[in-house]
Design a protein that fits this description.
By secondary structure, the chain is mainly α. It has six helices and three strands; from the N terminus they run ααβααββαα.
Length: about 180
């Protein structure tokens, strides 16, 4: 394993884990992975206090902001998959934070709506989200926070474009599959 970059990285600090030599060609990608893992872990610790798991607050934020949504629209809004959203909605429903009702216009669709209990939760989630932001950016000046946000938005844009172009690319040919006559 290669050692974490001591005080020489862009952030000027040490990585919390040693970067394996096999990741030397992708130090930013490895850093994103580490940061995302730690961010999710800390979010989980904070959200557990109000009875939520990471990701559930994002569903609630969409419902609080936009009102009742079809489950399929939540999948699209959060760039999720149907199975994950079904589990998340089921857990939120069990906890009493959402209710599911059939769509009046599409018999196959469910409308997910926040409950009054979830509206009481909103202020707590907003406070926890603010606390998470403060903890994640401790030691950064307002200018550095702005630079970090711009850099992350740029990375997100690049990754979104890569995903979109990958989705449109033809699947590689299977060398073991015979051509049809």
């Amino acid at each position: 394993m290669s050692d974490a970059v001591p005080d020489g990285g862009p952030g000027g600090g040490d990585a919390t884990v040693a970067v394996p030599a096999s990741a030397d060609r992708g130090p930013i990608s490895h850093a994103i992975f580490r940061v995302a893992r730690l961010h999710r872990m800390l979010a989980g610790q904070l959200l557990r206090r109000v009875g939520l798991h990471p990701g559930q607050e994002l569903v609630m934020m969409q419902l609080w902001e936009l009102g009742p949504q079809r489950q399929a629209d939540l999948v699209r809004l959060l760039d999720s998959d149907a199975a994950t959203m079904t589990r998340t909605v089921r857990r939120l429903e069990t906890a009493g934070f959402v209710r599911r009702r059939p769509s009046p216009t599409d018999k196959r669709a469910s409308i997910i709506e926040p409950t009054p209990a979830s509206h009481a939760l909103r202020r707590e989630v907003e406070e926890l989200w603010g606390r998470l932001e403060c903890l994640a950016t401790t030691g950064l000046s307002p200018e550095e926070r702005g630079e970090a946000l711009r850099a992350l938005e740029g990375i997100e844009t690049a990754l979104s474009a890569a995903v979109a172009s990958h989705d449109q690319a033809p699947a590689p040919a299977d060398p073991d599959r015979r051509a049809e006559p």
